Amino acid sequence: MSECTHVPELPRPEPAPLSETCRECLAAGSHPVQLRLCLVCGHVGCCDSSPYRHATGHFAATGHPVMRSFEPGESWRWCFADQALV
Q: Which of 9, 10, 61, 68 could serve as 77's disulfide partner, Cβ 3.0–4.6 Å?
């Protein structure tokens, strides 16, 4: 794991999830493979193994750099900007 300049800038406590699943997948009639939580705003999106890659799309649209796994028992975080586990 590495440090990035974005982690200290994250809101504390982390934002509440805006949904329980990827709303974009539901709207498209798709099923998310794994879920990711944006640590800036609480958006829940699907991972890059899902057909539409909504978590990555959220980063591209908003610039929100850090997400964490939203899967039970997982707590790892990823910085899109630094391309690193943080």
A: 68
What does the pLDDT look like over 36-61, one tens digit per residue? 999 999 999 999 999 999 999 999 99
pTM reported for the whole predicted model: 0.94
Show the domain range for 25: 15-73
What is the token pair recorded at 63? 């610039």
Q: Any residues with CB less than 8 A from the CB of 30 and at least 6 apart, and which?
A: 46, 50, 51, 52
Q: Please report how many Cα atoms fall inside a 13 Å half-sphere around the Cα of residue 61, on the Cβ side.
A: 10
Is residue 6 domain-resident?
no
| Structural domain contains residue 86 | no
